[in-house]
Amino acid sequence: MFYLGVDLGGTNIAIGLVDEQGNILHKDSVPTLSARPPAEVVDDMAALCRKVTADAGKSMDDIAAVGIGVPGLTIDETGVVVFATNLGWHDVHMGTQLGRALNKPVHMDNDANVAALGEVVAGGMRGAKNAIFLTLGTGVGGGIVLDGKIFSGTHHVGGEVGHMITVINGEPCTCGNRGCWERYTSATALIREGKKAAQRNPQSLINKKVAGDLDKISARTVIDAAREEDADAVQIYRDYIEALALGIINLINLLDPEMVAVGGGVAAAGDFLLEPLKACVASHVFYKDAPHAEIVLAVLGNDAGIIGAAVDAMNKENA
Ligand SMILES: [Zn+2]
Fold first, then answer.
1. Residue 80 Cα, ligand 1 centroid: separation in angstroms?
2. Ion ligand 1: residues, Cβ under 5 Å
3. Do 52 and 162 reside in the same domain of the chain?
4. Which of 81-85, 116-120, 191-195, 264-268 has the weakest average pLDDT?
5. Residue 148: left (phi > 0), alpha (psi -120 to 50), or beta?
6. Distance 241 CA to ligand 1 centre (A)
7. Are residues 38 and 135 located together in one domain of the fold?
8. Percent share of the chain, pLDDT over 70
9. Which of 100, 202, 205, 251 has the fewest CB atoms inside 10 Å of its own CB, making it the most exposed?
């Protein structure tokens, strides 16, 4: 049998036909256009499910179930998206509606959770039973896989590693708290600190790279300046790595996973991120004489969500 994996994003809906081993046979996408009524989004999703299946040379009879990764909080048992901030959705019965439209079982989970499963099934953490996935973007998303399955806790709200509070009375977070880990470890953190440095020191390479237009500073600007050994950028990047390592050390001490994968925009820095990160984790992890999680780069990009959603549906159907 085959499964459809849906990656519901704020900009696009990407859907793939996935086999039982986690290979995408065919995929396609349409714009989400999230400002319209959710029922219309679900209609387009159903139409794309059918199109992807047909274009892959399969029929709906070949599809065992559909999985959806949602940027928000979902209750799989009731088929409800409780809220998805980026989509402006509250209490949308998406699972129920899509299930009725396609006459298939539909399962949902948080997008970072399913991406974690995707990286475990077919990506950078292939074969790991216990694994943590981190996505370093505008915020920091995270997914935890335990014993081969997504772990989202008792109330479906676990795995929100980005909102671990790591600094008492620290930087204000979009969630309303202060000092959340993602305030120090997202692309947004690099941009914020890069702007401060550029204002403080107009001679900094960060400032030169954007010709004084501070709104053009990206995470990449700061990382590139650090590579070129600009003193301000090097300090910002060192602090960034330390903050990132701190959270990963806590996660390793808590869960002792086999692997930790980092993805998202900042992870495009590759070994320039990975090597100092690994060194910092190794020197501060609690059990220094025992082996600890291997830290790797995520490799699937957006496909992680499609594959993970499909495999999550397969796991839940076979549970
Ligand atoms: Zn927060």
1. 24
2. 163, 173, 175, 177, 180
3. no
4. 81-85
5. left
6. 19
7. no
8. 100
9. 202
What separation in Å is there between the alpha carbon of 316 and the centre of ligand 1?
Answer: 30
Q: Residue 302 has which token pair?
A: 């957006």
**Tokens encoding 238:** 């060192």
Measure CA of the first residue to CA of the last residue in the chain; give whole Å.
Answer: 16
Q: Of 30, 79, 35, 27, which Cα lies nearest the Cα of 55?
A: 27
Q: Ligand 1 centroid to 169 CA: how many Å?
A: 12
What is the whole-number distance in angstroms between the Cα of residue 83 and the centre of ligand 1? 16
Supply the range of the domain harboring residue 114. 2-120+302-318
Rounded to 10 degrees, what is the CA torsion of 274, 280, 282, 285? -120
Cα of 165 from ligand 1 centre, angstroms: 7
Question: 170 alpha carbon to ligand 1 midpoint, in Å?
Answer: 11
Percent of the chain at pLDDT above 90? 94
Q: How remote is the CA of residue 45 from the centroid of ligand 1, in Å?
A: 31
**16 SS3 class:** strand
Distance in Å, CA 91 to ligand 1 centroid: 22
Going from the Cα of 162 to the center of ligand 1, the distance in angstroms, rounded, reads: 7
Same domain for 100 and 193? no
pTM: 0.93
**CA of 180 relative to ligand 1 center, distance in Å:** 5
Angle of the 271-284 helix axis to the 219-227 helix axis, nearest 10: 80
Residue 311 belongs to a domain with what CATH number? 3.30.420.40
Cβ contacts of 300 within 8 Å, gap of 6 or more:
115, 118, 119, 122, 123, 124, 263, 307
Q: Are residues 186 and 233 in the same domain?
A: yes
Residues 6+ apart with CB under 8 A from 34: 10, 41, 86, 87, 88, 89
Of 158, 157, 156, 159, the closest CA to residue 78 belongs to 156
